[in-house]
## 1
Amino acid sequence: MHTHTNIISYFEAEKMREMQSNDRGSHCFQLQPKMQLSISGMVLKIDDIRNYTKTSRKKKTTNNCKNWRPWPDLPVELLDIISSHLRIADYLKLGRVCWKWRYFFLSSRQKFMASQPPLVLFVSSRAKRTCCFYDIFDFIKYEAKLPYFCCKSFIGLSCGYTIMEDILSNIWLTNPITGHQHVFASMPLFDDCMHICEHTILACTRPYPDFLVVVLSKLHCIVRFRRYRETYWSVYHFAGKPWKIMDMVVFNARIFVITSDLQIGVLSLGSPPDVLLLSFKCTPQVSCCPRFVASNDRLVLVDFIPSVALAVYTIDFMRREWVKVDNLGDQSLFLGDLVTPSLCSTTKWGGRSNCVYYLPFKSTRCFVYSLNGELLSSIIVSEADPIVSPRMNSWYFPHQSYGIDVVRDDKYVGM
Amino acid sequence: MAIMYALKSSDNEIFEVEQKVIEQSETIKKMIEDGAATGEIPLQVSSKTLAKVLEWCKQRQHKTVENENDDNKGKRKKERDEDDDIKEWENKFSDELKADKDVLFDLLLASNYLDLPALLSFLCQLVADMVAGKMPEEIRRMFNIENDFTPEEEKAITAEHGWAFQP
């Protein structure tokens, strides 16, 4: 039977729930039986509670005139199968129906997004606030409205965030799936041109968690970065060096860079910032400077000129050498201009594996190449769509939308 | 002569069914193999739901038997006709479930408990189709789900997806 302490713990649990509901950011709400303990400071007797629950249940049934089934209590394994048939937009709405479904949503979203194919993102010049996402495997189109889109230019995409720059050179980070948004004030400009030709990546710092934006500007020979809580941009100049930094990527909690003479290094975020070059054997002959590929377990580079050259390499850190990759297994490489390319498994969407999906700048077509550089097919992403005259295009990787790459912050931890 | 089994629903109604029909349920198949199914097989499923489950199983059974007996002659055309028949039957079946969501809910739980993968996947697809393109408020109304968010919570959650991903 219930004891006195049980009732007190009920009371506390209810209060806890209230407190947690007020803390909106934390996402750790707890399910508790809904009881109104209205008399402040007094503990209700067990009979009162029984009466209360009895009457409330009675009230409910008379209200509905029908014995409805408890849909919120649908077992998680069934919700799992149901959501596997849903598209992103509908899945997001499922998490807004009731608390129990929201818990399911919060615990399954990472897995759900990982099962979604890469989407093609078009930012149109005609529609100021609308951008479109296309699923090239199912030919489904999504639209998303971005806030205050006017006068901004799209400069890239990283960790599920679209990166835009406004006329005052503020950097806007917007995640169209989670709705999160951050603004980094005024990045110093070197001349009047925008930062379109630059490469921007986003990360989260450790041990002190903060947002980090890193912008590589090949034209000006600088790398700039800023932590969200800081008020200034740190700058690393490489104008005096015999090489240029051509690309960068977050791997193994470090920012790796590749130089124009194919040296690989690590960018230190200390003050002053620095680049530590590492030496690797078997540096290949390449046709252009390879680009880094986002991959969880290995550092991958791709050397690609459409219909001219295609080669994929990985870095063997144990033997300190470049290794050519001849087979991507069931994965394919998704290449575009404004985002770090990514390796994704394509077979479950009926896509080709062991291929390169290439989305040229401003193009409405995607081209599929075999790993030996042969053009296999082209996919028209959007045919005769009036609002699509893309000003910018890019791949959008849903599996990156709920997690940000972590980077060790050298300001607080020695190199 | 087909082997018959007696299934007993939770409200004590007896259903006589052919072995082949009920063996689609992995749960019952296992019970039979383990020798636990002598006499009546008691199931935690109401008679109304069980009748519906068996309706599905018989239809599926019908389909596989006919395919086995088919000659090659005219098989293509026959298959096409059959596919149309099954489609029609499935449409009718799902229309009934859409109209009575209580049966749908009970059937979902029953197919999960009886381990009927084909039925389970069919029902989950049906629910997904029903939910697709609807706003949370419409989904709540459809399944009579109580909105247990406080207005502040709802506002915060809606703001999270306020402008993102309109289908």
## 2
Amino acid sequence: MNNPGGPPFQGGPHLHQHAPPPHAFRPMPPPPNWLPPGWTEHKAPDGMPYYYNAASGTSSWVKPTLAPPGPPGLAGMGPPGMGPPGMGPPFVQPPHTMPGPPPPGVPNYQQPQLHPPGVVPPPEPSTGAKDGSASKGKKAKKAKKEKAVKKTQILETPWFIVVTSLDNTFFYNKETKTSIWVPTPELEIVLAKMGQVETERLRLEADKAAKEAQGQEMERKRPLDAQESVADKRTKPDDANTGTEMTEDDVAWQLAQMEDMMGGEDQEMASQDEDEDDESDDEAVQARLRLLQGTANNNQTHSQPVSRPTGGMELSEDNIQEREMAFLDIMRDRGVTPFDTWERALAKIEADPRMYLIPEAKARQTLFESYCVIRAQEIKDAKEKESANKGKDKEKDSKEDRKSKDSTASASASSSSSSKPEDVYRRLMEDYTTIKSTWLDFMTKYRTDQRFLGLKPGSLRESIFRAYLSDLKKGVIQPKDKKSSSSSSSRPSSSSSSRHHSSSSSSRKYKATDKEIEEFTSLLKETKKDILYEHKHSSSVEWRKIKKLIDRDRRYDAVGSSTEREQLFREYADRVIQRKD
Amino acid sequence: MPKIRSSRTKRAPEGFDEIEPTLKEFQQKMKDGKFILPLCSSVPVSENDPHEGKRKVEALWPVFRIHHQRSRYVYELFYKRKAISKDLYEYLLKQGYADGNLIAKWKKAGYEKVCCLRCIQPKDTNFGTTCVCRVPRDMLEEGKVIECIHCGCRGCSSGSGAGSAKGSSSSAPKE
């Protein structure tokens, strides 16, 4: 194998498959001086420190003494994902422990044997155990960012294809500990060979998995598609930058990653707490990485790394955006309303694995807030539109209604054109007013109704309503449902003045029998005609006065309804006055 | 505490139905964590919650917390999300679903996350200062956890950095 610019094999005390990872796993690594070479300290998710020997692939809870290979018996106790690296068959099916490309802060203990490309290549990490501590300290910050997500051995060679969390792919030689962006010619041949066989298989599997996922949960479809499109997009820059040999691999990688994403969300959830810092620093890291890549470009002496597409950065941003969009979609799908508290919304979307697209709890909440604002606006708009439509529909209805009535009813109805606001208002009243309704009820209910607002000025609304209501109470107008039979008779009277009631129409409506009326009239006759004359232009106030004079009489109660009494009184008064005149 | 609704009370404006379940939930929570205060006793007796081992002051914290959450909910519905109408908002205030005085404070700069009105009343304290929960996180001793005596708030100053401020605003008076 050709190691472009890689340091010669470093004969440490033990054969290291990997240097102690230059990407420190914790922001503040303790001076690892007291660790035997090859051992690195890591933090388990529960905070327990453990120790890992990259060379032997063993891990231990117990701090290793200077006995190098580490207590083998304890290896089993190590944290998950600590299998001996690179031992699998060529092109191992990617482990399903990783949550897919972009979760930047996934605890690295899951793949401690991997190196991010930005870290490894240019300043040739002479990664031996000696300077492990130095490089660790130095790179701690940047290493946190981009991490290797997957590593696959290329057939029988010591080369691995490594995919990082930012979807960059590079090649790593475990023997020489060099990493390069572009495969060497020799490597390319192997890759091509391997690609033909393996990528096909992988792709098939990935496709199948994707299809399954789609079938299982239709809701997942959208983000998945998004991922797919992103993946497709990614492959293009890859083609351009790394040569044709890479493409198949890349596609396979992307697909496999998607698979991982689906499977690995649980891990993501578990690790979300650790992630919190990472996102904020993301940009700094990106910048750093680019810088690194830039220097790598200039620094052709070390190796021939080609600057990876800055597309990597764009993509990751895209990805965040897309994931945010997906997250909003979840909330929509799950019926989160802007009237929910965050806790309630959380309960609604918790069941959805897509929720973990956004690893940070805080980010989720802010997304929820913005979702609420958007959704509230949407609901408001929808309501407005609906009410407008309703108003229009009603108008249309009333028009048709009116037309049909016109054909049957007398000419008086036809005089009123239906599009006039008064008529629309009138119809609204007729539809929704019963004897029991009050102005306040009616007003509060239809305050926002287009039909209600159509009538201007506002004072007119109340007066019309009150007139209508009093008519209704007096029985001048039949309630709506009865009206169909007597529409021709009641309509003209209702549209005529509400204050003066023609005696004919009123007497027809009286429930009181003639005999009762007779009695009541006789009572009125006994009262002085002068008084009646005095109140020629009587209003109800005067009626009240007269009422007081006569309400002791037995005959006063003969007519049951007070409105009827008043009505009778007015008629009588009119007659008397006319006679006198 | 919201008024009891009967046929005589004013009918709720449009949109109340949508937020009613949430408000009911708050009400229920308030009931569950609520304490019946016997007339002649200063020691609250819990209805459901065991109060053994709790300090006297702690007994009332849940009430403050739920009160804060509910007011915050209404405040956000109207001012942040703009999801309810002014009519409904005023109705809610009038009916006691939200504390208008507290919301008035939230609208002022520097008081965006105030936990309760007691904590910003300097007259109630011996030194004539506000509560300890009003002190910005970075002015406190490093790593010191405070719980104010009034409502159990762990810090509600506006400028306490993104992390702490967020935490305190979402569930301000935490127990």
